Every structure is written in C-alpha cells, then in structure tokens.
Amino acid sequence: MLSCSAPILPETWTNSNQLMLSLIAPPENLSPEYFSSLLNQYGPVQQVKILNKSLMDFKVFVEMGNSEAAKLAKQFLDQLSSNFIKCSYYHDEKQFETGSQNNCSFEIIGDSTVSSQKCQHQTSLNEILYEDDYRSLSVKTLPLNHKTVKSSQLIQPTQTLCVSGIKGKEIDAKKLYNIFSNFGNIDKILLIKIKNFAFVKYLKNDNAMFVFQNCQQLEFFDSTISISYASDDSIDKLIGLDTLYQEQDYYIGSEDTDRFNCNNKMILLPPSQVLHISNLKKVSSNAETMWDVFSEFGVVQAVKVLNTQFKFMCLIKMETLKQALEVMALMHNEEIDNRNVQISFTKAKI
C-alpha cells in the first residue's frame, strides 16, 4: 500500500534521507530523470517517485543515498525561494510499493520504456487548497540503474511564468499587467491570491526569459517575488474555477493595451528607479505638477521636463525601486488632468 499520510517532519530533524517536494503548476515535461539529474550532484539518488495529486499540484518523493545528501539537496531547493516548489523532510517506515489503489495506476519507468497508462481525474478546489489532504493518482519510479539526462535537455523556457510571493490587498491583475507589460506584450494574467502567486503569459518566449533573468526578488507593496517557468496551459487549466479568483484577478491583453508594436524591434529595459512619463498635457508637464502627483506614492528625488513643441514628457526619479514599481502599478494609463498618461522604465539618468 502507498502511504501518503505519513507525517512531514520538522526541518530540524536531519536524520532522514527522504524528501517530499510539493510543486504548484509545474511544467508538463517534468520527469523522475529531471529530479535525479538535478539532485545527484549532492549525493547518490536511490529513487524518485512522482505522486500526481491534482491538476495544479503534485508531490515528488526523493530518497537520497544518505541523510547528508538529503540535507544538501534540501538546502539547494530551499535556496530557490519560490512558492513553485517546496521541500520538506519525509519519513515513512514502509517503503513505497507498486500496486493498485482506488482505481489508480502505478507507472514504473524502466531502463528504456515508459507506460502511457494514466488516470482520469477531476480537479477540485479542496485538492488545490489543502495540501495535506491528498491522494495519489500514479507513481513513477526511477530505478537505480536508470540513466539520467541533463536537466537542461528536459526543462525549456516557456511563454508562461509563475510569479510567486505576491501579497497585498492593492494587487490585482491589471496592476501586475502595468508592471510586466514593460517587458513584452502579454497574452493574459491570472492572479491566485489564496496561493500568493500569478501566472503571466507572454506572446513570446524571449520576453518571458527576459523577466526570468531581470525581475527576480523585486519588491512592491507587500510582495517579494520569485519567478519560475510554468506550463503554457497553466492559465487555461484554472479558467472556470471561479472560486479561486475574482474578476479583477484575470486580465487579457490586447492590441489596444500592448506597449510594443509587433512590427518594430523591441527594446527591453530592466526595472529602474527613473520613470518616463509621456502623453501629458502641456499644462501638466512641469516639475511642480510631477512632484505633487507622484509624491503621493513615495519620495520623489528628481524631476526632469522633456517638452518639445508637440510632445510633453517628464522623467521622475523615485527614492527606491520599490516605490517606482508601485507608481508603475498604480498610475500607468491613469488620468492626469483628464488624459491617460503612459509610464515606462528608462535607462535615462537625472
């Protein structure tokens, strides 16, 4: 029998060589080989078993060769600082055994063949919310003599990102759109507040990769975010489960809101304390108005007016990057003197 209800041990208990990984919305191409190749640099990996829990969350059981290897592997996984994957020590006196239970199939990965048999399963809200109350759908076992594959061959960048660590009553999908649309045209965003994460799907892989590389550990409102790749159908899997999100938590991009013309080359800039304010009225494009408007969101350190005969723009520098991100979230495409202003990051200096 497969026991999934054994207690998760305190992190201070370091004698176990067994780990339980909990993942939310992982890419579809995750496999036992991936986890083995990821963790075998910290010691021998005796077995890896993927316990499919639900559409949006599944467990991975890893048995390392000894407790020291498990400790090192756990330290590595903890450093990822992501809600996408959590690692805990695990202990069960009984070994996992293959067999059948509650009409679930058990898949055993041999040296060269993989069974394609799968269980049919309907995702429920309870399965997503209550991580300890789960049941196994299938088990994939990696034997000791299985040849591993480099993880880079198994995990590729996707158009969709899982942005973890999102907190704060101020946050909704549109505010996230105001920030992340700076880095490419967005297909859609879905915010799951009860899990403190959002899916952001770009139209191009390159844009998602830029965000993955340049936006880790950003802070805004009560959030400190970490970013992982997710399956490109992650949002589609959750649409319709309206008890998970409210209307303002789902945002669909369009040509009307896209920041970039698809016919022109995109110039992507990382987040910056200096913001470019455009589409201003002449009456608004002055230092005094800029100080008055944006001081509401933090300390304005400097303002520079960039007016021409027909265009009225300004640069403002906020005291911190956090304040600049909050200005972006709250004020992009909002009205100043009855005109919707455009705000973007810039490499310009003041």
From TrEMBL:
Record keywords: RNA-binding
BP terms from Gene Ontology: nuclear-transcribed mRNA catabolic process, deadenylation-dependent decay
UniProt KW Secreted keyword: no
Signal peptide: none
MF-aspect GO terms: RNA binding
Domain of life: Eukaryota
RRM domain span: 159-232, 273-348
Name of the featured protein: RRM domain-containing protein
